[in-house]
Each structure stands twice: as structure tokens, then as C-alpha cells.
Amino acid sequence: MAKIGVIGDAASALGFKAFGLEAFPVADAEEARKVLHRIAGEDFGIIYITERFCRELQSDMAEYTGQKTPAIIPIPGVDGNFGIGMAGVKKSVERAVGADILFGGDN
Amino acid sequence: MARLNVNPTRMVLGQLKKQLRVALRGHKLMKDKRDELMKRFLDLARENKKLREEVEAAMGEIYTSFSVASAVMSPELMDEALMYPKQSVSLGVGSKNVMSVDVPVFSFETSQPEGSGIFPYGFAETSGELDTSIEKLSAIFPTLLKLAAMEKEANMLAEEIEKTRRRVNALEYVKIPQYQETIRYIQMKLDEDERATQTRLQKVKEMIAKDAIEEAKERDREALEELHSKKD
Q1: Does any domain span residue A97?
Q2: Is residue A93 part of a domain?
Q3: B24-159 has CATH 3.90.470.20 classification
Q4: Running DSSP on this structure, what letter comes out for residue B97?
Q5: What is the average per-residue pLDDT within B8-13?
Q6: Closest Cβ opposite residue A66 in set B67, B147, B159
Q7: CA distance B17 to chain A (A)
Q8: Do B93 and A45 touch (CB under 8 A)?
Q9: What's the number of domains chain A is made of?
């Protein structure tokens, strides 16, 4: 059975820990990057990362896109929603279609 | 368009024609694959967007109640309460084949000691907001999981679409014209050779005929001379 990891600042990760996921509280993006690469090699099916760190880890996250696992998913953190997760959806649409056809109309 | 650097022979022509047939067939298949992938991807992306909006809204609420909880409780108490999770979540990873892209399918199982709920702490020293936020989190978790699976699938499909589109374009705009050009070139070259051979043969035939005429004339002249000398 695979595990689910959460990488985020301590405040965001705490709640997930209580729920029974494996939380990795980190202080900055550099630490988050290290943790990400370390646990990506382990038996993690999904890794949620709070958006604050996602911004600086884009290229690191892209390394794992082609693999089946882990699925690295940005989630909003305690400090709010930066729209990075949405930007990811938008980006994949742009990549596939060549133009943004989902978001153009309504925002 | 540059043609391929090959010898213009009949054998190469045959090979190229075969390759062109394969390329055309491949092109058609790839194009179909791209279209189907695109169809699935668009549905997926639309749903993905909706789900993400939902999750992001719910997460906001959870964090709000967490913040309230941590404001009411001392940080030490909070840490203590959440330090040892009672519940553990394990994830099943299956796989699904979407147009020959291997995408993961997630399922999860929570395990906890019998009949004790998910709260890893006693209710005496913690605030009610903490209970609410953990409850909310467990309510949103299946959606969060669905989002993960969907987003992963969308990302993988997007990558595959990009790859397939490149292949389609490479075949359509590079490979196929190249083959066609080369085949035309070889055909023209072969025709040219044939014409050259034909004219050469005609020339040779002419020369042979001329020689034969000369020879005949020579013989005639000799015969005439002989005749004249006999007369004399």
C-alpha cells in the first residue's frame, strides 16, 4: 500500500497529520525541495504541496509528470490561495490544446 | 524540402514507396489518437477545474477553523493534541489505460482503532473548532483524492497529447513530403536514364546502319571496279 505525503509549512501540515497522512513540515522552499526529492523516491502515491512552496518548485515537480506515481498536487496553504493550482490546470490545457480555451471566457 | 540522400535505383524506390505507405498510415493513426486524447482531455480538464475550485474553497474553510482553534488553544496543547495521529490512511494505487497512457487510479482506506472515531485527542482540553476542522478535513478528503487522480491524469494526458501532436506534425510536414519528394526525384532520374539509354541505342543503331551502308557501297564499288577491269 502506498502512502500519502503532505509538504507544507508547519501550520498547514499539522491538520493533515491529525487526519493520518504523513506530514512533512518544512520552513522554506529549499527544504521543501529536498524533502520532495527524498520522498518521491519512496513509496508515495500522492504528495500534496502547499502553494507557497509550489511556486519555487515548478521545475522539480515537472520532473515527475511523466511518471505514474507520485502525483504531485498543489493545495492551498494556511496563508491563502495563490491560484497556483489553477494555473497548473490552465497550463496543462495550454500545453495540450496550444491555447487556453477553458479559462479565457470567465476570468 | 530537402530530399533524402539516397541512390536513385529501382530498389530504393520500392523501399521508399513502402516507407511512404507506412508513414501515411502512421500519420492517420496518430491523428486519430490525438483527436481522441483531446476529446477526453477536455472533459477531464473541465471537471478538474470544477473540482479544484471546490477543494480550494473547502480548504480555505478548514484552515480558518484551524486558525481559530490554534488561537483559542496554546500552541503546546495543539501540538500535543495532534502529535500522535490515531487514524492511518493507506493508499491503493491501481492503473488505468487511457489511449495507451498508463494513468494511476487511487483508492484509500483508513484504519483506526475500533469505535473510537478519528480524533487523536480527548475532548477535555481541546477546543471545538479543532474537532470541526478535522471533521471537515475528513469530509473533503475523498474529493482531495479524486482531485489528485484527476489532475495527474490530466497532466499525463496533456504530455501525451503534446508528444502525439509533435509526431503528427513531424510526419505531416517533414517525413511524408520528404518521401514524396525523393520518390519523385528517383522516378524522374529513372525516366531520364531510360530516355538516355533509348537515344544511345538509336544512335548505335544509326551508326551500325551507316557502317553497313558504307560496307555495301564499298562492295558495290569493288564489284564495279572488277567489272571495269574485266572489260579492259
Answers
A1: no
A2: no
A3: no
A4: E
A5: 91
A6: B159
A7: 33
A8: yes
A9: 1
Domain membership flag for residue A35 = yes
CATH number for the domain spanning A29: value is 3.40.50.10580
Residue A98 lies in a domain: no
Asked if A105 reaches chain B (Cβ–Cβ under 8 Å), the answer is no
User: Could you tell me whether strands A44-50 and A22-25 are parallel, antiparallel, or unpaired per DSSP bridges?
Assistant: unpaired
In chain B, domain spans: 24-159
Condensed to tens digits (0 to 9), the pLDDT of residues A2-50 reads 788 888 887 777 777 777 788 888 888 888 888 888 888 888 888 888 8
Residues from chain A that touch B39, judged by Cβ atoms under 8 A, are none
ipTM exceeding 0.90? Answer: no
H/E stretch holding B62: helix B10-72
Range of the domain at A19: 3-79
Choose from B73-82, B85-94, B140-149 the range with maximum mean pLDDT. Answer: B140-149
**CA distances from residue B199 to B66, B101, B131, B194 in whole angstroms, order as listed:** 95, 60, 99, 9
Question: Is there a contact between B87 and A78 if contact means CB atoms under 8 Å apart?
Answer: no
Residue of A nearest to B147 (CA): A73
Report CA-CA distances (Å) from B95 to A28, A68, B153, B206.
Answer: 34, 8, 11, 78
